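[Structure tokenization] protein backbone as discrete codes

[Encoding] learned vocabulary of local backbone shapes

[Begin record] amino acids and matching fold tokens:

___
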Amino acid sequence: MYFLRIKPLKESLATAGIDTKEQFKYLMAWMLLLTWASSLSFKSPGFWETVSGAGMLVITFLGILYAYLRNGGSKGTSFLERYLSIGWVVNIRVFLVIGLVVLGGAYIMRLLGYYAGDYYESRAGMGQTVLASLAEIYIALSIGRHIGYVRKEYESRKNQEAMPFSSLQISERLKKFEEAVTQREMPMIRVDVPGARTGRTTRRKTAKTVRVSARKSRTRS
């Protein structure tokens, strides 16, 4: 893993690329850096801000590690592709739900005569930290669960393609065979038996020979 040297990194990417384990390292470092940077503030953070920032770092680390293991670890494939695409969809869905809940709550409080900004500012602290942590935990678990499903489906289809006859193909052929048997549409099998065509002729010749022999015996007697 490179931190400051960009030239050897470009050479690695241009030749053989980086494996799944290296992808995991870069993603982990990148996400931890973003999480830490988003928790920074120009003013001195309070107690719950510090707890929230530390909690987000821990959840981010464990979430990426969980997704990496569900993808098969170092033996897995397409980790970045799966993590980024699935993570994008999961985050958008969660943010939409949270946004609707917050807007709905603010609208209801406004109808009741409260100002949402003053209400949320007075309730800031432990509640926001707990809710944000729960949302991040749900996102991390959802990403790992979906990645695990994709890995299993990919390996299952790959194993079926590697087999000479899949179970589905075998069942389809057996079904066609049973239908042919029930409908008496089995193909005619021709077996050539020596002397089969000349069976009657042989029997006739044998009968004539017996009659001639009997007549000769009578004539002699």
About this structure: The two ends are 117 Å apart (CA to CA). Residues 86 and 110 are 36 Å apart (CA to CA).
